[in-house]
Amino acid sequence: MKQRLIVIGSLALSAALLASAFVAGVRVGATESDLLQSTVRATLLVGELRALRAVKIDGLVKAKELELDGEVLKYHRLLESGHPWLLLPESATFEHERYLRQVAVYRKEFPAVVPALEVTGTDETSVEMRARAALIASTTEQIIRRFAQ
Questions:
Q1: Whether the Cβ atoms of residue 69 and residue 63 lie closer than 8 Å to each other
Q2: Alpha carbon of 14 to those of 8, 9, 17, 49, 79: distances in Å?
Q3: Helices (H) and strands (E) in the chain, counts
Q4: Residue 26, pLDDT score
C-alpha cells in the first residue's frame, strides 16, 4: 500500500513538472522566436527608413502592402491551426475584432497586392506562390465581409 502511494505520488509530481515545463517552454519558445526574427525586421526597417529619407514613398507603400498581406496570411493560419490558449493570459488581451475592422476598411479601399501579382511558371515555388495568393485573397474577402461596416 505504501509503495503504491509512493508510485502515485511520483506520477503526480512528474505530471505537474511536465505540465510546468511545457508551459515554460511555450513561453520561452514564443519569446525566442520573436528574438530570432529581430534581425530580419531590423533589416526591413532599414529599407523603410531609407525609402522615407529619400522620399521614395511608392516603394515603401508597396513594401507595407506586402507586409499586410503576409499578416493576413498569418491570421488565416491562426484561425486554421493556431493555439493562442498556449500564451494565456497574454493572448486574451488582443482585441482582434477591433484590429480586423481597421484591416477590413483599409482593404476594402485598397485591395490586397499579392493576389494581383502575376506569377508564371509551373515550378514548385510558382505553384506555392499562387496558392498563397489565393489564400490571401480569400482570407481578405472573409475579413471584409465580416468586419467592414
A1: no
A2: 10, 8, 5, 51, 33
A3: 5, 0
A4: 66
State the average pLDDT over residues 11-21.
Answer: 74
Q: How far from 19 is each of 13, 27, 30, 31, 88, CA to CA, in Å?
A: 10, 13, 17, 19, 14
H/E element, 19: helix 2-36
Say how far apart CA 99 and CA 107 lie, in whole Å: 12
Model-level pTM?
0.69
DSSP letter at 90 equals G
Residue 123 to residues 96, 104, 118, 128: CA-CA distances in angstroms?
A: 36, 33, 14, 9
Give the residue-averaged pLDDT of 101-116.
93
Distances (CA, A) of 71 to 3, 117, 136, 139: 55, 17, 9, 11
